[in-house]
Amino acid sequence: MPRSVNSVASRKRRKKILNAAKGYFGRRKNVLTVAKNAVDRAMAFAYVGRKLKKRAYRRLWIARINAGARLNGTTYSRLMHKLTNNKVELNRKVLADLALNHPEAFKAVMDSVK
Hints:
single chain, rod-shaped, about 0% strand, mainly alpha, c-terminal domain of poly(a) binding protein
């Protein structure tokens, strides 16, 4: 009985890797084994990058809230403590947007928890 190799699936699998490696430098874009290593590495970095992006945005929001809070005579930690105690459920993203783009609304939120 002849050996069955299913070249359609093999070609599709190889083409998927080479398409993902499009734009890479040198042999990374057209030699399968090198491209496979490069793509695997890139995917790992992309996965980590998606996690790091969340941390970076949270740090940015905290810095903006702190700047807005200090303009109004308090600190970030004191403000967040007061917001928690008064059960104000505005997240950091919204507070940072208010502090940056709508300082009067941010001041109103701060006054409501004093």
